[in-house]
Amino acid sequence: MSAPSSTSASAVQIDRFQGGQKWLTAGGGLGLLLVILSVAGLFIGDEDQQRLAGACYLVAFAYWCGIAMASVLLLMIFHATRAKWMVVLRRPVEVMGASKLENRQRKGWIDVQSAAKRPHRGR
Fold it and tell me: String of b and e for 40-79 (b: at least 16 CB within 10 Å)?
């Protein structure tokens, strides 16, 4: 049995998906509107309402940070056990964990360049 020729494989043309632009724009606009309303909620109202808005922000921040940290922990477990079945889950878990790391690096909380230059203090 011979391998299929390259001419038959190149005969199939699949066009790139061009739709969804309206949904993407609408979702981005709605997200921006909700972020503006959330920030405005921190400054509008009396002191109790501002405290409540700040507490809600803190809970949401802790929730999403918890998901990111749990995904990194799950990834470490996958690597420590040398799991073969985790190939399907590896990329989404890496993205979930890296998103928080990237935000912290952008804010200046983590300096990746200087950490990479430090010598490893292994056993």
Answer: ebeeeeeeeeeeebeeeeeeeeeeeeeebeebbebbeebe
